[in-house]
Design brief:
420 residues; L,D-transpeptidase catalytic domain-like; eight-stranded mixed β-sheet; 12 strands
């Protein structure tokens, strides 16, 4: 019988006689350190408003072409497939933990058939906890720690049993070489803390989980499955992230507020301010108090996974699919800065230039060029079905709906890091 089921058999009265269940952990609210590059840029040409930008004509002659697969530096490992009954029952320890965690959540039950009984029971209990049965799981851990998944797993389990998410977060210190146990418990921390509406703990945990998955070659689909969690962090950012208050004056629109903040060195765009204040539009009232986020945004792209992530400090608030450069014309790696950003861009890669709206214009609805390499940037598409492939001439290409969202979210001077 699984440990979690044993706890249920005891019943509430018996369980109360054995243990005392404290309420969810609290702790004082801290601030997250910004990990973004700030560069001073002129006010003109800012994303989503301000004076009209005059784009530097991109020299990239990007045209629609057949997708040519390009191998990632870290290959995605496919989910474990169920084996015949005669071959099941032997996997245990870290190997089982890694296989279980690399399998998409809806299919993880299949991995249990490959494991020995004790390992399968421990993984089944953990899966229930990640699906919301946290109180029973924590109570079960207080009675007995599972041994089948290794000492490191036990150490994190003990931290959670003794101190809830706060102590678990302390135990899961960031590491450059994450183990399967670290990855599993980091996902558990993110999901459990966010279920408790503790984004101060859950947000950074989700960020470390996303980075760990992408750096360790988890499947692209698993990373994209975290997209709703990231967007939820963005919508709730104003409830837990550091901010200052700004009182709207007579005659001020969102443009005026943003311009005034930019003169003070705060590089923010319309959507991030509106989202931080849980506003569905940009309308303002005289005397309204706006929360102004202290945390600026950054963009990271993983070329091998074809994924773009927007971070607010350590918290991912957007996860987008994207396309990158095809074989022979790879998307450049390194650190860049958004500079020339325009709506409804004209494509200057051919003569004569291709106007916006022409089906031959590969830039789609938005262009967000890099300061350091002006012929490269992030843009929309004229071929939605190709997003997620290796088919560009070096740019990062996104769905038009996603690039419009990104364009309104981040300002000129936003740092961009492109990983292998």
């Amino acid at each position: 019988m699984a440990l979690l089921d044993s706890v249920r058999v005891l019943g509430l009265a018996g369980l109360a006689a054995l243990i005392s269940l404290p309420s969810c952990g609290g702790g004082e609210e801290g601030s997250e350190e910004a990990a973004v590059l700030s560069l001073d840029d002129p006010l003109e040409g800012e994303v989503g408003g301000g004076a009209e930008a005059t784009p530097t004509p991109p020299v990239e002659a990007e045209v629609e072409s057949a997708a040519t697969p390009q191998p990632a530096v870290l290959e995605e490992q496919p989910p474990v497939q169920p084996q015949p009954a005669s071959a099941r029952g032997g996997m245990s320890g870290m190997k089982a933990l890694d296989a279980w965690h690399r399998t998409p959540q809806p299919d993880r039950a299949d991995v249990l058939d490959l494991c020995d009984g004790e390992t399968a029971a421990a993984l089944a209990d953990l899966g229930k906890a990640m699906s919301g049965e946290t109180k029973a799981y924590r109570a079960a851990l207080r009675l007995e720690l599972p041994t089948a998944l290794g000492e490191e797993f036990q150490r994190y389990a003990r931290a959670y049993a003794d101190g809830d998410v706060e102590q678990l977060a302390t135990a899961l210190r960031p590491t450059p070489d994450p183990s399967p146990a670290w990855m599993v418990w980091t996902e558990a921390l993110a999901r459990i803390a966010m279920d408790q509406e503790n984004d101060r703990v859950g947000g950074p945990a989700l960020g470390r989980l996303v980075q760990g998955m992408l750096n360790l070659g988890y499947s692209r689909d698993q990373v994209m499955a975290l997209r709703p969690l990231a967007e939820g962090l963005g919508r709730r950012a104003g409830t837990s992230m550091p901010h200052e208050l700004y009182t709207v004056e007579s005659g001020e629109a969102m443009y005026n507020v943003r311009l005034k903040l930019r003169k003070q060195g705060k590089k923010l765009n319309y959507r991030w301010i509106a989202e931080f204040n849980d506003k569905s539009n940009y309308n303002l009232r005289v005397g309204e108090e706006l929360k102004i986020p202290k945390q600026e945004l950054s963009i990271e792209v993983w070329r091998g996974a074809r994924v773009t992530v927007v971070f607010a400090g350590e918290r991912p608030i957007r996860i987008y699919p994207c396309s990158v450069g095809k074989e022979g014309e790879p998307t450049p790696l390194g650190n860049f800065t958004l500079e020339i950003c325009e709506e409804n861009p004209v494509y200057y890669g051919v003569t004569p230039p291709v106007p916006y709206g022409n089906p031959e214009n590969p830039l789609g609805d938005r262009w967000m060029g890099f300061k350091e390499k002006t012929s490269y940037g992030i843009h929309g598409t004229n071929s939605e079905s190709t997003i997620g492939t290796y088919e560009t001439e070096g740019c990062v290409r996104m769905h038009n709906s996603d690039v419009r969202d990104l364009f309104d979210l981040v300002p000129v001077s936003t740092p961009v890091t492109i990983h292998a």
